[in-house]
Amino acid sequence: MSSMIATPIFFPHQHPDPRLSPSRSMSHNSHISSSRKRKAEDDGSPPDDRMSTSPSPSLHPRPLAAQRVTKRPRPGIAGRPISLPRLLETLDADSLRSVLQTICTKHPNLGAEVETVAPRPSVTSALAVLKNYESSLQAAFPFGGDPTSDYAYNRVRHAFMNLLDALTDFTPHFLPPNETQAIQSLSFLDGATDVIHRLPEWNSFQNRLYKQNAYEDMSRAWTLAIREASKKAGGIQLQYGGWDQKLTKHNQQANGQLQEAVDEMKNAIGWMAGGQQVPPQQQAGIGGGDLTTVRQELLAGTYGSNLPVRVGPW
Description:
Helix content is about 60%, strand content about 0%. By secondary structure, the chain is mainly alpha-helical. The relative contact order is 0.05.
């Protein structure tokens, strides 16, 4: 039975040709590929398309070798206090003011240095502080009821006293000789007097004394500022700043409690308006001439040009 195993039968044309060498078969394959290449060239495709299909070494730069990154050991994180500049950035105006007041109280020498370094308060900033105290006073009033009663006074007494204390502290700062500019003194007094006008009119006589005393102090402040301003440039700034009219209006609102300041204003600028009251420091320069003419010459800058010039000892 073993002799009957079927063996595969090959026909003559199916046997590989032993005469063909490997080199000849390779050349045969290359001939076929070259013929296919020529056929693709004859298809009519643009030369640019054929060039674009071949990779170009210049368009694809070689990737650089990745640099080795070495990690440095970082110190461990731990809690620590914030620096002073960052701490000051977090403080609002009230907190910063409280800190400064505490430090100056503990170290009085630092308080004197702060006064030296800090800029002088301006009229605008001082009146803004008074406005804030005034707003706090209005916000402290109880809802409903009589706003001039003793009950209302007791409710707002703390805010009311804070406003009066601030007014008492700021006013001397803008008076001579601490303030040398008359316009600064008068501007502050003008705004501060308006604050006094808006103070409540309490029912109790004892409570009303606070507003009366404030008017008396303000009248003396106006008098001092006017007296010093009248010594500069003949007091022209008083009249041509409209201060006489402003003071007269203030006196009317104060029911005549600023009359002392009004009288001082009349003495300072009365001679310029053609009145009979002449300040002693101006009497020697007028020489008995027409007051209206003198006023016009002062404004024109020609006063004294027509007077004879004396030669020799006076």
